[in-house]
Amino acid sequence: MDLEILSQDDDYEVMDTKRRTIQSESGEEVVLDRVTDIVDWYKNLSTLPNIEHYDVLIYLLHYCKWPEQRLKNFKNDNGYRLFLANHIDNVEISSTLREEFVYVKATCVPETRQSATPYSVWILIKHVSGEILSAGCSCVAYV
Fold it and tell me: What is the pTM assigned to this prediction?
């Protein structure tokens, strides 16, 4: 078939770059390093800011555009169920970013294929306030 090529851009790269683009305290737009490019990760989470339920709610409402009904049914959400079933492991924090931001990454064992390679999940947090700015996952559903 001779189909027209609509875009040369890699949609995942565009989406990933958008997730890593933040506004610094000075107001400038900054694209942070890819999670996979960061080499300094630490298991000591003592510097992790407090993340409250409302931080997660604000992120899901504002950035992810979750509708009210989905928020009401959060206990049925796959991510929440994986967390409750102890599928999240190897939680680490980076210290290589600009001081006001921090990445937290972890692995998530797939629910139905537990011998498969774990997904890589991450969140980007404002270091002082605990505000969640972005998140990502290597699972097919997220891409």
Answer: 0.77
Assign 95 to helix, strand or coil. coil
Q: Domain boundaries in the chain?
A: 11-137
Cα 87 to its chain centre, rounded Å, is 16
What region does 45 belong to: left with phi over 0, alpha with psi -120 to 50, or beta? Answer: alpha
Torsion angle (degrees, nearest 10) of CA 82, 36, 22, 107: 10
Tell me the pairing of strands 101-108 and 88-94: antiparallel
Contact 118, 89 (CB under 8 A): yes
- Nearest CA to 124 out of 11, 23, 5 is that of 23
pLDDT in tens, 39-75: 889 998 888 888 888 888 888 888 888 888 888 888 8
Asked if residue 134 lies in contact with residue 19, where contact means CB atoms within 8 angstroms, the answer is yes
